[in-house]
Amino acid sequence: MRAVRRLPRCLLTSFFSLCFSQGPGDIDEAVDLLSRCDALARAKDLAYVQAELAIENVMRLAPSDARDGLARLAYKIVSRQH
Q1: pLDDT band for position 68 (cuts 50, 70, 90)
Q2: Separation between Cα atoms, residue 80 and residue 19, nearest integer Å
Q3: What gap in Å lies between CA 80 and CA 82, rounded to an integer?
Q4: 3-state DSSP call for residue 61?
Q5: Residue 20 to residues 16, 30, 39: CA-CA distances in angstroms?
Q6: Which residues of 1-82 form beta strands (DSSP E)?
Q7: Does the predicted model carry a pTM greater than 0.85?
Q8: pLDDT, tens digit, for every residue of 40-64?
Q9: Any residues with CB less than 8 A from the CB of 37 and at least 6 apart, and which?
Q10: What is the per-residue burial (b if ≥16 Cβ within 10 Å, else e) of 2-12?
């Protein structure tokens, strides 16, 4: 939620109003708005931070295949290319 608070209010207002309409060009305009405020890059940065916290905390558990699998999953999710 912190990433959303950093977005300019005018972009948020425009974006959320687009979410509830279905006119022609709405998707292109939403993508443009998100691009102008680097929303995707911010979301990816936040995902990396959360994955690092998850890995750090899961490594406190007793060694097991499940623990290692959770750590791998957190890493895999943020490192995938699509």
Answers
A1: very high
A2: 27
A3: 6
A4: coil
A5: 7, 11, 19
A6: none
A7: no
A8: 788 889 999 999 999 999 999 999 9
A9: 7, 8, 11
A10: eeeeebeeeee
Indicate the SS3 state at residue 29. Answer: helix
Neighbours of 36 (CB within 10 A): 11
CA-CA-CA-CA dihedral for 56, 60, 62, 66, to nearest 10:
-30
- Are 27 and 38 contacting, i.e. CB atoms less than 8 angstroms apart? no
What tokens does 37 get? 């405020």
Let me know: does 59 contact 67? Beta carbons within 8 Å.
Answer: yes
User: What's the Rg (C-alpha) of the chain?
Assistant: 17
User: Cα-flanking dihedrals φ and ψ of residue 14, to 5°?
Assistant: -65, -45
